[in-house]
Write a structure and sequence with these properties.
Helix content: 25-40%
EC number: 4.1.1.20
GO molecular function: diaminopimelate decarboxylase activity; pyridoxal phosphate binding
Strand content: 15-25%
Number of domains: 2
Oligomer: single chain
Order of helices and strands: HEHEHEHEHEHEEHEHEHEHEEHEEEEEEH
Radius of gyration: 23 Å
Number of strands: 18
Structural class: alpha/beta
Number of helices: 12
CATH architecture of the largest domain: Alpha-Beta Barrel
Largest sheet: 9 strands, mixed
InterPro entries: Ala_racemase/Decarboxylase_C (IPR009006), DAP_deCOOHase_LysA (IPR002986), De-COase2_C (IPR022643), De-COase2_N (IPR022644), De-COase2_pyr-phos_BS (IPR022653), Orn/DAP/Arg_de-COase (IPR000183), PLP-binding_barrel (IPR029066)
Distance between the termini: 58 Å
Keywords: Amino-acid biosynthesis, Decarboxylase, Lyase, Lysine biosynthesis, Pyridoxal phosphate
Family: Belongs to the Orn/Lys/Arg decarboxylase class-II family. LysA subfamily.
CATH topology of the largest domain: TIM Barrel
């Protein structure tokens, strides 16, 4: 997808606007499956929290993907998108036993990450196939907010609690069919991932009826030119060899599962905004745009970097700009960034806007959420309409007219 295509879509659908490139999603999916082609049983479960639009779910379903979900609502969206229940994996955190039982009734794969719920669920439903999420106590991830496998994390059952876990399983006679881990996002060093995998292999030896091992994901994608990314091909080569050897030791051909979210959709996304105003102070040139952290919060929340292109003037002389939004608090997408000269009315494109961007959007300041478009087969397909004032009012209930104070 080229800049001229993005400009055309901005003209057609307005701004702000999210655009996703179907070909990029497909190429990332194929890259991952190719890297692990030496594994006989491989399954990709798309982590839909990254981008949960039903059209995106349908696109990945056509490619053979399953789903990784973290809430009952995500499970319902997956079913609505046409996924078979057995292709949906449910890994909640801190939810009630009631929600887990409600999801279980839908026929999806349950993954439990704490001893209390494990014991309660096992006592009531010993025959239900259950996966267990292990915390390997491995620090991995590009930011402390997205590192979930360390010792202080709220996620998973501590590997040091394995004897207690095994005792619960033996007492309840639960049907444990899988072991799962997820160390964090933006993993740079595949050796750290492989080290955590060995912990998972050791834990798996305690369970005799496993059908799969789930290694989570967290693969890093490049955010700027010459940026480091997870070497998927090298990881595929090393982990495939080790996984196949473990299956031989275990005496059974297990399924290897990954749960990529960002890896599949991040680079496919572009976020288009229009420049409302150029404001120069004594030290800074601000480009104020028609969006804010209500639409793209990651730079403010994680300090993440999104490369910004001026697609209206790509060959202009570069100047330094701070790109800021229209929210009434600190709302800065980029500080002192070199960008081709920006004028009021120009369209800027934020790269890597496919993951955790629209899915984390809000109506803060009572602003509308933007539209979403899928670029497929050389055309833009509207997959979510821009919100309207009626959408803001939809679930609000005003006081009766006759109410007195």
């Amino acid at each position: 997808m080229q800049s001229k295509d993005l400009l055309h879509l901005a003209e057609q659908f307005g701004s702000p606007l999210y655009v996703y490139d179907a070909d990029k999603i497909k190429s990332q999916y194929n890259r991952l499956t190719k890297a692990f082609s030496k594994v006989e049983k491989l399954r990709i479960n798309y982590a839909m929290k990254a981008l949960s639009n039903v059209a995106i779910l349908q696109l990945l379903k056509e490619m053979g993907s399953g789903l990784d979900t973290v809430s009952i609502q995500e499970v319902q969206l997956g079913l609505h998108a046409g996924y078979d229940p057995e292709k949906i994996f449910y890994t909640p955190n801190g939810v009630s036993l009631e929600e887990i039982e409600e999801v279980n009734a839908m026929g999806v794969q349950i993954n439990i990450d704490n001893l209390s719920i494990l014991e309660q669920f096992g006592a009531k439903h010993p025959n239900v196939p259950v996966c267990i999420r292990i915390n390997p106590h491995v620090m991995a991830g590009g930011n402390t907010n997205i590192s979930v496998g360390h010792i202080d994390s709220k996620f998973g059952i501590s590997i040091h609690q394995l004897p207690h876990l095994v005792r619960i399983v033996e007492n309840t006679k639960m049907n444990i069919v899988g072991i799962h881990m997820h160390t964090g996002s933006d993993i740079l060093d595949i050796e750290v991932f492989l080290y955590a995998a060995e912990i998972l292999f050791d834990a798996a030896k305690n369970f005799k009826n496993l059908e799969f091992l789930d290694f989570g994901s967290g693969f890093k994608v490049p955010y700027k030119k010459d940026d480091i990314e997870t070497d998927i091909e090298e990881l595929g080569k090393k982990l495939s060899k080790r996984f196949n050897a473990f299956c031989t030791e275990y005496g059974k051909e297990l399924t290897l599962i990954f749960e990529p979210g960002k890896f599949l959709v991040s680079e496919a996304g572009s976020f288009l905004v229009k420049v409302n105003v150029i404001k120069q102070t004594t030290s800074t040139v601000f480009a104020g745009v028609d969006s804010g952290f209500n639409h793209l919060i990651r730079p403010m929340l994680y300090g993440s970097q999104h490369h910004i292109d001026n697609i209206s003037n790509p060959k202009g002389k570069e100047r330094f700009y701070s790109i800021v939004g229209y929210i009434c608090e600190t709302d800065t997408f980029a500080n002192n960034r070199r960008i081709p000269e920006i004028k009021e009315g120009d369209i800027l494109s934020f790269r890597n806007a496919g993951a955790y961007c629209y899915s984390m959007a809000s109506n803060y300041n009572s602003r509308y959420k933007p539209a979403e478009v899928l670029w497929m087969n050389g055309q833009g397909h509207l997959i979510r309409a821009h919100e309207t004032f009626e959408d803001l009012l939809k679930n609000q209930i005003p006081l009766p007219v006759a109410t007195t104070v």
